[in-house]
Design brief:
By secondary structure, this protein is mainly alpha-helical. 66% of the residues lie in helices and 2% in strands. The chain has 2 domains: 227 residues, no CATH class; 308 residues, ABC transporter involved in vitamin B12 uptake, BtuC (Orthogonal Bundle), CATH 1.10.3470. The protein has 21 helices and 4 strands.
Length: 578
């Protein structure tokens, strides 16, 4: 009874909205798609590009290489074509798809129009010179708005459902093509614009690519393709993992295979592995840890002291695999020690305890307590890893292909992330993982059901700290130095943000969250003083529209839906009382 009373207002509201715009749905979609195509052919600016390499192309009347997707004109053109196809083809959830593509077209047009206008010194970017009007961005924006309205007019139907009973060869082919497309999109995102580009519009082109990719991905999600791929990958889990691993290892062979992006990708992998360990504590067990980076620091310090560096204090040089295992074990012991107070405290009080531990580690490392951290001088000169005489920080060649420096570190870290994800997946679906989830949902109920909550929570801290210590050992050799400055409170906040953004309890969510937190600031360097503001705004928008994370866990999604239903029912009851 309560369900019907809750759902009735939302259904009637949607019906009223559709009835108003229904007659204009397809006409608006047709006009919006045509305007998107026309906008790609119109000039977007009339002032000369004095700061770039293309002063003769002041109207930007050119496209980048076909199918490169690195030029905003390609983005606008393709979105316009997609809107027309979605409007008149038999597409599931037609209104939802048209609306998603319309948002993509509007975002791309607004970003490039606003950035070009600002770059041109104000309205000079759209004024007429020799009869040439720069109305491209305005036309594209209008087309996007019309497509959004068309989506509401056609009707926002539920997400489409595809049959998952397909033959194994077809499923393998679909998964292979889909994951290859993801690899291509990642490489394009990294190489679009970016640091050191001579194109004065590199930053806008990067944001344009994000708008284009977001619109297309939302449209594919509305059609049901994303859910279908997720179901297929779950059915063929081993094949999916192998293909994803191959795609990750193939990244150095793409346009992103340069020393700069290999370094960034390696750092992303280290923090992703650490964030997955934090996901056990926060995402599965529901324990807020604000000093988690200290465990990564303990692993790094231990590995540095066993590395044979000049400033090492143990005087013992161990092979890296042995040193990494020792570092992980020591970090795990400290994790169990820190987890002990969880028997007495929870919630905000637990956060204060973990925050205090992180600050204790930072201050101890800064003051060189115990003679292990070398104080403010850090531990420099950590020798790089080597395998069969090949140093990991040197470039090398495979046949005629020359790979940049740091590729071997990247490969090692990809394997590390794969191993940590395997550990996380097995724990999540084990008896211990179910106990963690039960504690997260209701600790008192879990204890009443016979779960020994104290030991299970300490085990979460121990395993999470062990994984962080292992990542810290790789971090020490990758950077060649270990300093207390790398393990301050802000790093713990970054790791926690990566877990929340990606999706708490989600296996790939921590990886995606870490990637966003590292890639976005790097790609937004072109905006100088506005970089952090745009980055913060992006995080706010993600949390507003994806409160359970970009790749939410099934349990967390169900919890959020249940809470939303309860809140809606309470609001409806309060409204009736009023």
């Amino acid at each position: 009874m309560s369900t019907s009373t809750v759902s009735t207002p939302s259904v009637s509201s949607s019906a009223e909205q559709r009835s108003t715009l229904a007659p204009l749905g397809k006409p608006f979609a047709a006009v919006g798609g045509v305007l998107g195509i026309v906008a790609a052919l119109l000039p977007w600016v009339t002032f000369a590009l004095k700061d770039g390499n293309w002063p003769d192309k002041s109207t930007l009347q050119f496209f980048d290489a076909p199918f490169s997707l690195t030029g905003f004109r390609w983005h606008v053109l393709l979105l316009g074509v997609f809107i027309l196809v979605a409007a008149f083809a038999p597409v599931p959830s037609k209104g939802r798809v048209v609306r998603a593509l319309g948002w993509g077209l509007a975002v791309v047009s607004f970003i490039n129009g606003a950035y070009i206008t600002v770059k041109g010194g104000g309205l000079g970017a759209i004024t007429a010179i020799d009869g040439d009007f720069a109305f491209g961005s305005i036309v594209g924006l209008v087309g996007g708005v019309l497509a959004i309205l068309a989506g509401y007019g056609i009707g926002i139907a539920p997400v489409g459902v595809w049959k998952t009973k397909v033959s194994t060869p077809v499923a393998y082919l679909v998964l292979l093509v889909s994951f290859a497309a993801v690899l291509y999109a990642v490489a394009a995102m990294l190489t679009t614009g970016g640091v050191g580009s001579s194109n004065p519009y590199a930053g806008a082109i990067f944001l344009s690519f994000l708008g284009f990719a977001g619109g297309v991905l939302a449209a594919l999600s509305g059609v049901g393709y994303v859910r279908w791929i997720s179901a297929l990958s779950e059915q063929h889990r081993v094949f999916s993992v192998i293909v994803l691993l191959v795609c990750a290892l193939a990244l150095p062979f793409t346009d992103a295979g340069n020393e700069y992006w290999m370094t960034v990708a390696a750092n992303i992998g280290i923090y992703a592995a650490t964030a997955i360990g934090l996901n056990i504590v926060v995402g599965l067990a529901g324990l807020l840890d604000l000093g988690y980076v200290a465990f990564m620091g303990i692993g790094a310090v231990m590995a540095a002291n066993f590395s044979g560096a000049a400033a090492a204090n143990f005087g013992i040089t161990l092979p890296f695999p042995v040193a990494a295992v020792v570092s992980a074990v020591v970090a795990g012991i400290f994790g169990a020690i820190v987890g002990s107070p969880t028997l007495r405290v929870r919630g905000d009080y637990l956060a204060i305890v973990t925050l205090a531990f992180g600050e204790i580690f930072t201050r101890s490392a800064q003051n060189n307590i115990g003679g292990l951290t070398n104080g403010s001088n850090a531990i420099p000169g950590i020798p790089p890893l080597s395998l069969f005489g090949a140093e990991f920080n040197k470039s090398f060649s495979i046949g005629a292909v020359k790979l940049p420096a740091g590729v071997l570190y990247y490969v090692l870290i990809v394997l590390l992330v794969a191993a940590v994800m395997t550990v996380f997946a097995n724990l999540k679906f084990s008896r211990i993982g179910r106990a963690w989830i039960a504690i997260r949902e209701d600790e008192d109920a879990a204890r009443a059901m016979g779960i020994r909550t104290g030991k299970v929570k300490i085990l979460a801290f121990l395993i999470g700290a062990t994984l962080a210590g292992l990542a810290g050992a790789v971090f020490a050799h990758k950077n060649g130095t270990v300093s207390y400055e790398s393990f301050k409170f802000l790093e713990s906040v970054t790791l926690l943000a990566a877990v929340i953004l990606g999706g708490m309890g989600s296996i790939p969510g921590a990886v995606l969250g870490a990637a966003l937190l590292f890639v976005l600031p790097e790609k937004l360097r072109d905006f100088e003083d506005y970089r952090l503001m745009i980055f913060g705004l992006a995080l706010i928008l993600i949390m507003r529209f994806r409160p359970v994370g970009l790749i939410p866990d099934a349990h967390r999604r169900a919890e959020m839906i249940e809470r939303a239903d309860e809140n809606a029912e309470e609001a409806h009851v309060e409204a009736k009382k009023a």
